[in-house]
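Appendix B. Chain record.
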Amino acid sequence: MLSQVIAATERPRTRDSLAADLRALGVEPGQLVMLHVSMRSLGFVVGGAETLLDAALEALGPTGTLMMPAHSGDLSDPADWSNPPVPAAWIDEVRATLPAYDPARTPTWGLGVVPELFRTWPGVMRSAHPTVSLAAHGPLAAEIVATHPLDDPHGEASPLARAYDRNVKLLLLGVGWNRATLLHLAERRARPDAEPALSGAPILRDGRRIWQRYCDYDSEPEQFARVGDALAGLIATGLVGSARAILADGRTAVDAGARVLG
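Structure tokens predicted for this chain:
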């Protein structure tokens, strides 16, 4: 796998080269940027995920804020698991023994190496939702992640809405629009009368582990490509390392999504 990445890379990607590529794309000091990335798409990066995060923070400077999803979907209700499912006879035991969500300890799940490293990065703050938390680093981090309601975790009281209010930029490196977590806010705005679905997760309350039920909403990220189509001509595109890169205005993306995802 690594040998294939090296063979496909004309020269090593470094902190300086990646920061330069990000600046050429339009990333500027002081911005709030939400990042989604496939490390392999960048080509061979000297230092891997650590170098990429260093480059992104360098491009944003000390006045900029970087945010990423820090989801832990494996803490969801095992009755809803499908990839893979667990035997029905296991569900009660799994539900009763899943570790409670802890923002400082709970690993990310299914997001790749960069979000997992980022959640442990010095100065990063993480929101309180047990399955769809967000992590942020920089002057706006505390404001972005301070409150994350259990019910409707992508709605108007969520970190996504606060990021929208703060003119977030959406940065996709080697991934498609289906990975754009910010567009879950657009779904909620497009479908304000959608029926909620009951979910659950283990949390700590007053130092005690409990199984907490909450209301969430179904999502169709496979439809997010329609938002990308609606934004044709309104986004910056280029290469960061070897990765096809997209930088979009977050407000514009959410507003477009609210129109086309209904």
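Further analysis of this model is presented in Appendix C.
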